Each structure stands twice: as structure tokens, then as C-alpha cells.
């Protein structure tokens, strides 16, 4: 059976500049995907290509097996059965909530339209706001109206363009979780664009992390964090440091501290490796012989995130309970717990250019 949405080897060019190339990904029915990445990596360009606002210069985009974009041919946005929620919600200020939601249903007979609007109001729990105007609603409520409006025509895929960015940061993660619940409950296939990994984690089943117009890794949130395939992914996702370490004659890793306990893993003597160390790979241990200098720290409520200096000058993060209160310049006794860390071969390839 065909995927709900499939991108095969898609490229998008603006004149001679190739903004996106070689992008392949599929979404199955009811799946929530995410395009994540730093500013300028091509997220919006890809979303616009899926919506039909941007033509593609290579590859194919299809919805349930039907081609909607290929070089030189594209179905116009209004014929794609794609719904869109914009960054600023784009509600019509002079229309009531109900009329905003009814906007895309002009072709429907009036009675059916009214029923559909009522159903959408219920879906987003705004039944009592049908006659309110957008300015009378909170940011979160406005967003639910935008969602209801986009879902009203029953699109085959819902596109969400940075849907939480105009809301305050406290609300964002909570809303991302709520929107996920709503979409999952209703079996909506959706794709979200964001540069915020917490939003991506809270909403998506699978994430395509983009770098300079290409997919750096397409994976579950768990794998992106725990099994990053490259240093770029490791540095973009979560916190951590990448240490340069050498392998000694016994095949063990040595970083100037003595040996790092890596469980049963061994490497070729003489090699240099890059090791991803996450804050939870280094634990506070009051009995440890090893103390590291505190370079800085930030308060996280239950924890301090410490920035510690190794004897050779490299830094490592460490998450310690916040009652362990060592100011910068002090020494924190720690233990390395590196059984699950990720090791990279040295990355000598220069960053790829997006321009083909
Ligand atoms: N209309 C355009 N004409 C020419 N270049 C463009 C156009 N739109 C985007 N670009 C370029 O294409 C690249 C990708 O842009 P895009 O807006 O897709 O990135 P993004 O990942 O969505 O970034 P942001 O998170 O900042 O919105 C950038 O280098 C951008 O400068």
C-alpha cells in the first residue's frame, strides 16, 4: 500500500541556488513527522513544496500514491487536500471562530457545513466560543481555532509551520503534547516544521533533521538523542560535549585523565576517536578520587548543569542534584559512566555545500 505522504529524492531550487536536495521521506497514515534543523536548512522550503507553493526541481512528492509534484508539473495548493497551520495562526480577525472554521467549507451544503463546524469546535474543546472573535481568545485557544480550520476539510495531511513559535515558552511544550494527543486521537497524518528540538520531541513520531538542505538523519526522537549518526546530529540534539580521545597500547581510551572505563569495548591502539559525552554520562560521586574544576553551571531546578574542565582542557557537562552546590572555580568529585556513550570516527569531511 502507498504511504500517506512520500517524498522521493526531492530537490527545490531558487534560481541557481539549490536550497533542498536528495530529500526522501515517507509518512504512514496517522504518523506525525517533523522537519527539524537550524535556520536556513530548508525546512520551510520543503513544507512549501509539500503544500504546493513551491515547485520542485527533481524527484517526486505523492499523496496516497498520487503524484502531486514533479519537475515541471504540480497540482495547485487548493487541489492537494493538504491542510496548513501557519506560524501566526493567520485567523481572520473580522470573522467569528465558527466562521473562521467554516472558511474552507464553502462548497459544502449549509446544513452539513454547520454540522462540520460544530464537530470541529468539539474536537478542539471550544464549543462555547463559536461566536467569539479571535482577539477575545488566548494564544493557545487561537491556535486551536487554526487547527480546527485546517482540519475541517478533512485533509490527507496536515502541515504545521512553527505552530508554537508565537506562544510563550512555558506553554509550548505543554501545547505540543496536547496537539499531539488530539492528532493521534483522530488519526491525522501531520508534518511539523520547527527549529526547537523540545517541540519536535513532544510531538513527532519521527524526525528528519536537516542540514544545509539535506537529511542528516531521519529517525525516532529516542534514536536521534541516543544514537546520533554524526557529530552534527549529536551537537544539535540535546546537550553534550564531543571529546577527542586517543587509544592506548591496550586498546583502551585515554583522555589525559587515565583510562576511561568503556565496559568491554576496545579500539585499535594509536587511533584518535571522538566521544560524545552527555550530562548524564558523568555522575556526582562524593567518594570519587577524581575531582574536576567547575567552569560554570546553570540552575535547572532539581539539578545544576555543571560545565567541568578535564586536565587536558576539554570540557564535559555534568548534571548533579541542585543541593550539590559548588561554585565556579571549585572542584566537583565525579565518576564517568561511559558504557553507553557514542563514539565517532574523526570527521574530516568538510561541511557539504547545499549548492549542487
Ligand atoms: N524565495 C527565496 N529565494 C531565494 N532563496 C531562498 C528563498 N526562500 C528561502 N531561500 C533560501 O533557501 C534556504 C532555505 O531556506 P528556508 O526558509 O527553507 O530555511 P528554514 O530552515 O525554514 O529556515 P528558518 O528556520 O530560518 O525559517 C536558505 O538559504 C534561504 O536563504
Fold and architecture overview:
There is one protein chain. The protein is of the alpha+beta class. The protein has two domains: about 5-230, Rossmann fold, CATH 3.40.50.300; about 240-345, no CATH class. It has eight helices and 21 strands. It has helices at about 45-50, 95-100, 110-125, 140-150, 170-185, 195-205, 220-225, 230-235, and strands at about 5-15, 15-25, 30-35, 60-65, 65-70, 75, 80-85, 155-160, 190-195, 205-210, 215-220, 240-245, 255, 260, 270-275, 280-285, 290-300, 305-310, 315-320, 330-335, 340-345. The strands form four sheets. The protein has a six-stranded mixed beta sheet with strand order 7-8-9-3-10-11, with helices on both faces. A hairpin with a 4-residue loop joins strand 13 and strand 14 (about 260). Helix 3 crosses helix 4. The longest helix has 17 residues, at about 170-185. The radius of gyration is 25 Å and the shape is globular. The structure holds adenosine-5'-triphosphate. Adenosine-5'-triphosphate binds near residues 19, 40, 42 and 43.
Amino acid at each position: 500500500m502507498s504511504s500517506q505522504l512520500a517524498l522521493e529524492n526531492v530537490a527545490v531550487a531558487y534560481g541557481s541556488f539549490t536550497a533542498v536536495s536528495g530529500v526522501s521521506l515517507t509518512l504512514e497514515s496517522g504518523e506525525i513527522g517533523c522537519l527539524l534543523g537550524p535556520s536556513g536548512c530548508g525546512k520551510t522550503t520543503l513544507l512549501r513544496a509539500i503544500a504546493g507553493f513551491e515547485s520542485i526541481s527533481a524527484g517526486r512528492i505523492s499523496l496516497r500514491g498520487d503524484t502531486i509534484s514533479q519537475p515541471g508539473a504540480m497540482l495547485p495548493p487548493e487541489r492537494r487536500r493538504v491542510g496548513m497551520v501557519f506560524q501566526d495562526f493567520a485567523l481572520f480577525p473580522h470573522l467569528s471562530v465558527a466562521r473562521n472554521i467554516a472558511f474552507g467549507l464553502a462548497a459544502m451544503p449549509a446544513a452539513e457545513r454547520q454540522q462540520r463546524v460544530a464537530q470541529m469546535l468539539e474536537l478542539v474543546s471550544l464549543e462555547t466560543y463559536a461566536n467569539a472573535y479571535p482577539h477575545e481568545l488566548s494564544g493557545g485557544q487561537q491556535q486551536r481555532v487554526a487547527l480546527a480550520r485546517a482540519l475541517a476539510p478533512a485533509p490527507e495531511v496536515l502541515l504545521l509551520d512553527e505552530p508554537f513559535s508565537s506562544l510563550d515558552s512555558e506553554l509550548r511544550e505543554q501545547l505540543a503534547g496536547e496537539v499531539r494527543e488530539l492528532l493521534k486521537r483522530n488519526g491525522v497524518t501531520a508534518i511539523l516544521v520547527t527549529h526547537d528540538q523540545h517541540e519536535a520531541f513532544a510531538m513527532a513520531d519521527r524526525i528528519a533533521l536537516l542540514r544545509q538542505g539535506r537529511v542528516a538523519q531521519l529517525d525516532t526522537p529516542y534514536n536521534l538523542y541516543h544514537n546520533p549518526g554524526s557529530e552534527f546530529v549529536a551537537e544539535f540534539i540535546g546537550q553534550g560535549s564531543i571529546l577527542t580521545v586517543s587509544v592506548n597500547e591496550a586498546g583502551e581510551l585515554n583522555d589525559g585523565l587515565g583510562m576511561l572505563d568503556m565496559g568491554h569495548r576496545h579500539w585499535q591502539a594509536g587511533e584518535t576517536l571522538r566521544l560524545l559525552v552527555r550530562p548524564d554520562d558523568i555522575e556526582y560521586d562524593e567518594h570519587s578520587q577524581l575531582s574536576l574544576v567547575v567552569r560554570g553551571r546553570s540552575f535547572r531546578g532539581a539539578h545544576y548543569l555543571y560545565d567541568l574542565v578535564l586536565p587536558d582542557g576539554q570540557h564535559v557537562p555534568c548534571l548533579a542534584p541542585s543541593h550539590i552546590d559548588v561554585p565556579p572555580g571549585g572542584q566537583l568529585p565525579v565518576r564517568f559512566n561511559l558504557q553507553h556513550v557514542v563514539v565517532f570516527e574523526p570527521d574530516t569531511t568538510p561541511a557539504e555545500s547545499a549548492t549542487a
